[in-house]
Amino acid sequence: MKTYLVGGAVRDKLLGYPFHERDWVVVGALPEDLLKQDFQQVGKDFPVFLHPSSKEEYALARTERKSGAGYHGFVCDFSPNITLEDDLSRRDLTINAMAEDDNGDIIDPYGGMNDLNNHILRHVSPAFSEDPLRILRVARFAARYAHLGFTVAKETKDLMCAMSDNGELSTIAAERIWVELYKALKEQSPAAFFTVLLDCRALHALFPLWPPALNTAVLDSVARAADLNMDADIRFAIACSALNVDHCKILCSELRASNSAAWLAERFSANIPLSSLSNNEEWLALLEAFDYARRPQHLEAFIAATTLLIPEEDRLGQLQLAAATLRDIKPAEFIAQGFNGPELGRALRAEKIRHLAELGCGV
Ligand code: CTP
Questions:
Q1: Distance (Å, rounded) from C-alpha 223 to C-alpha 217?
Q2: Which of 106, 154, 287, 303 has the fewest CB atoms inside 10 Å of its own CB, making it the most exposed?
Q3: pLDDT by residue (tens digit) across 116-154?
Q4: Is 148 inside any structural domain?
């Protein structure tokens, strides 16, 4: 029995990139051999075990063959005569198909090191297409490593185009798409995720409403938001900002977007130019739509993102000041004066409108 470090940890170690997880492959063993050494079995469909002390994942070397549609249609072989090379051959990208033995030597049967040095994301074999989620993974790796100069190999792009055109993406569960998308949004170059998916028509196949709204200006703003370290919900909202509200709602529901991401995206897609707010009531409505009192961070996000999307918008400072001023209005002071019920609501509203007028918001 021999164990090897595999997958992302080998890749990121060689790249000098930080990694947080180590996965291991065990060759020449039966499940009983690991159970005898107090490993704990976690995989249902194939034998994956947790190390008794490190709790890292150890999988028996296996091959996988597609036998039907969707995620359960795999036949898996994990007999002790499966070699390390067999196991590495079922993996998605050459840079993910290297192993390190306990002497620190790299086993690299599919040219991963060469592709790593040349910054190429290339599939290992045609079996890549047996798992369409891999298209999203490639796009996510592009988002992670774009600043290092990584690009998708021509033959991999061609394969991804064919997979998109064949309708294979429709078998991926929406929840898995959201997980990949959200991870990609947190990467250093999230715009590259969208560019790769647009280039292979995957986004057209998955969410036909979205590609027309992902124009260069929007992608540049997503990139800028990442440069400014804005959080993933804001990056997502910016990516949705050129959709109309109805389309944005459809997209968020199809994507099973988290509530916080969908909430912000819908407000961004409402796309209210401040110059069109003609009176104080409309200013108050905008502030309330952003829940300015309870969620100040969302209004800040909107202001920061609008600065990127509409640089000529010159009333953002006024919006910020208006929100800060209205947050200082304390209901307790009105209650102390004897207001309550609907009267209290009316008095507070009148006070807010008076402040907005003083600030010269409504014209
Ligand atoms: N893998 C694959 N196809 C998938 C998922 C995973 O071939 N759809 C293989 C790859 O060899 C990958 C390894 O399983 O390197 C581990 O997968 P995972 O932990 O999901 O990804 P990492 O490559 O480790 O990347 P990350 O840094 O994002 O965890």
A1: 10
A2: 154
A3: 999 999 999 999 999 999 999 999 999 999 999 999 999
A4: no
* Terminal-to-terminal C-alpha distance of the chain: 78
* Digit-coded pLDDT (tens) for 222-277: 999 999 898 999 999 999 999 999 999 999 999 999 998 999 999 888 866 777 78
Please give the Cα distance from 140 to 195 (Å, whole number). Answer: 11
Whole-prediction pTM value? Answer: 0.89
Ligand 1: atom nearest CA of 183 is: 28
Residue 348 lies in a domain: yes
The β-bridge relationship of strands 57-60 and 23-27 is parallel
Last residue of one domain, picked from the residues 98, 131, 164: 131
Residue 277 amino acid letter: L
Kindly give the pairing relationship between strand 40-41 and strand 48-50. Answer: antiparallel
Encoded tokens for 289: 């739509």
17 or 306: which leads in pLDDT: 17
The amino acid occupying position 72 is H
Domain containing 73 equals: 1-131
Residue 47 lies in a domain: yes
Distance (Å) from CA 20 to ligand 1 centroid: 13
Q: How many domains does the chain have?
A: 2
CA 129 to ligand 1 center in whole angstroms: 15
**CATH code for position 61:** 3.30.460.10
